[in-house]
Amino acid sequence: MEQILDAAEYLFSKHGLHGVTLKDVAKRVGVHHTLLNYYFSDKTTLFDAVFSRRAVVTSERRMQALDAYEAACAGKPTVEGALRAFLDTDLDLYIEGGDGWKNYAALVAQIANTPNGVPS
Question: What is the pTM of this model?
């Protein structure tokens, strides 16, 4: 399953949702495309699984960083401090987390820059 998600993440980060087929992902993993159909009803379901796999990690890290910042600022938070706590956790993952996190960063950037939230 991790190989499927990794392959899909890579392909989605390069080509967007509409530029990738389940057959493309299966070919990259080296399996028959019916295996992907067994686990994922369609490409959107696979895309959602790819995105949510890492989103949970980033969300938890952000909340921990914001909690730590709140405790450290002694009741005098700043916008800059809150933004650093919120954003630096993701940036650290993208920089230090390896190729998978870099692919996820590219995918998040595509989503953030697409009007309907679905990269083409």
Answer: 0.83
